[in-house]
Design brief:
Layout (H helix, E strand, L loop, with lengths): L2 H26 L7 E17 L9 E6 L5 E2 L4 E6 L3 H91 L6 H92 L3 E5 L4 E5 L17 E2 L4 E17 L4 H5 L4 E6 L4 E15 L2 E8 L11 E7 L3
Helix pairs in contact: 2-3
Length: about 400
Amino acid sequence: MPKLARFALFAVCAAALLCAGVFHTAQDAPAQPVDTETRSATAAAARITHLNLEYKGYNGELRVKTVVAPGVVVQAGEVVAVVEAPDYAEELQAAQANVQAVRSRVAMLDFSLKWDARYKAVREQRAKLNHEAAKSALEHFLASGKKDRITWAELSVQYNIDSIEDQEDELRQLEALYKGNDLAKESQDIVLKRAKRRLEQSRTRLKLAQTDFDRITKKELPQEELNLQNSAENAQLDYESTQERAKQGITELFSALVYARQELEGAEKRLNRLLDGKALVEIKAPHAGLVLHGGDAGVDGVTATLAAGQKVGNGQHVATVVDTSTLRITVGIDPAAVRIAKMQRNTAKVEVAAMGISLEARVVSISPVVRDEKVNIVLEVTPKDSGLMHGQKVQVTLSAGK
């Protein structure tokens, strides 16, 4: 390699090493405090109050009756807008009627609940007595009633059997007694005929008694037992159902009463709001300032957005009062310039060079947090007659000098 080329390469490497050393030295060096910080920002009114139309309890139409022209300066307590409620009287009457109706329903439910609670014991006692009576009837039937009925049927049959046997014996004796005796022929015929007739009747009664016995033991008693069992089961179910229905009925009445009382409370609140309200609603300025219709976003403060007769909604943003006697400026500064803002003898200036505006400002707060390598500070300035206005772009200068 020629000497000239080697010399050039050496010079380039030396320069690179020298630059790298300088770069690292600059990075490692601590940040130097600044003596002056200048930033662009926007001046805004220190107090901006949005006036909303609030008419609680009213659901009818609302219309603007009068409204202060945009750009007019008002004092605290002055009326900014008057809104009329044409349906006020009708809604008030309906609210009063609704309160009366709900109050009547509450009274009725309260009476029903008390009456049902008192009558609950009566219904349960009646159902319990019916259950006990049906249960007792079944127990008596199974214990002795069924057996007694069978015994009576058996006795009826046996009575007729015994009666037939007795009559047959008696007839044989009569026949033996009158046999070969022609002296009492006429009397004999009468007595024997009567005995035979009674015997025949007894045999008929025996058949009837046997038929009754079969009917009682095979049909009536099983059917009666089944009926008594069903009656006892139904009475038990009715008793249990009466208890549950009574409990459920009281619960439902109590729930209905609670809901009705809540409804009455809401209806009374709405009525009280309407009673406190008027057919005309005044919206007043909470403090002095400039009136803007609606909000200040995209509105120049002069163009009207509301007019007399215009419909408005309940809760709508009607106007904004902007207090421009003090303007507030929020600006992000270099963290190294924070010490300037904290100096007791600092000088902060707010300027609009094109308009020749230069005003002193005071730092009212300094954020303790760094965001996006900036620290936000808030300044306040009194514009007086300088021409500085809300929303104007300004230059903010912080200086360590006097």
